[in-house]
Amino acid sequence: MGNEDRISNLPSDLLISIISRLTIQRATTTSILSTRWRYLYCYITDLYFPSHIPYVVTESDYSRVVQHVLDSHRGSRIKEFRLCMSKGLYFERWFEFAVSKKAEIIHLSGKHDIDYEALFLRLPNTNNGFECLKDLYLHKSRMTEQDLKLLLSNCIALESLKLDFPFKLDNVSIVGHTKLKHLSLTCLVADSIVIQDAISLVSLKLYVLIDRFSMQLSNTPKLTQLYFEEHFPLKLFDELLTRMPACMRNQLQIMHLSAKVCCISEMHQKLSWVDLVNIKRLELNLYSMGRSPGPNFLRNFFRLVRLVEACSSLDKLVITFRHWLSSHSEDMLETYVGSRCELSPKYLKISQYSGAPSQLAFTLYLIDNARSLKKVSVVARDEEALACARHDFQHIAFVSFSVM
């Protein structure tokens, strides 16, 4: 009984399901176990090729490994196809393979240093298999407006679409796609975005690189999560909120904003925050711009409080200080105090705290004006910043500290 191989006696479908959960390298090595296992790896349903495969050094070797696995595959269908590499020379061929195998999930991504001339260029000629696709991620593609229209018309079951750096996509039009739940368009240079009758859309993520674009949102009754980042400080975000119908703003429950905090006149316009009565969680990623902030820096910094104040039902507020550039000239900012207001968060989390005077002033202002605050968590950037945080907030009874 102790030497009996019970695993090999399991049905083939169950064994294939087990080895499909292994890495490609481990799955292929099962072929040496016995004749029972020799070809089982050829039917695995999850194909994941990470950016680094052990003992594979060059890009040409990487491509040969991928192609060998695909040529060996005998199954009629796969569930997932995920691949990340530095060059996109064969992305089209591999994408066509995944579509022909009726994959439900296809993620083709590349490193950020990919040459723009070596990218995923066009969609497969075949339409067979697109109807099974539920989750698609393409990184740095040359997808055009016509390509997107064709893709959406064929992918009738698509629930999640993520496009990074679609630098040929001048206009985005998603109309009447009733299955789509999650849409992410990052590093976008499109002139216009139209999203209509996406009745299942739950989350929308936009990262815009240009300083102006038009956006139309209508009939998205399930949209509750909005993630927004722009290259220019808060200009487009302000326009998006003010032009959004009130019924859509009232649906939002989670909002994530990446904002640049400027030291000069880039935020001189008056920000017209509207009421966001049902936001429960607000996350702000704040980037400082300029090494010598000057007196206008913190004034612009405090304008973000208007957004926090607009979220009258807020439970959790998360502030993350990213790429914070501070200098000794920030000392003059410690004395700046914004006008009093009423903020509603019950839980405040400060992440990547470095101890810069502007960070301290802003955090203390939030704490002092949050009428229902019950817990504060400060995550310091390093051990030195942790010591600063313990000193800066030692008078707060309900604060906890940690380091990244």
UniProtKB/TrEMBL annotation:
Transmembrane parts of this sequence: none
Domain F-box/LRR-repeat protein 15/At3g58940/PEG3-like LRR: 126-225
InterPro entries registered for this protein in UniProt: At1g61320/At1g61330-like, F-box-like_dom_sf, F-box_dom, LRR_dom_sf, LRR_FXL15/At3g58940/PEG3-like
Residue ranges of domain F-box in the record: 7-40
Domain of life, per lineage: Eukaryota
Protein name stated in the entry: F-box domain-containing protein
Lineage: Eukaryota, Viridiplantae, Streptophyta, Embryophyta, Tracheophyta
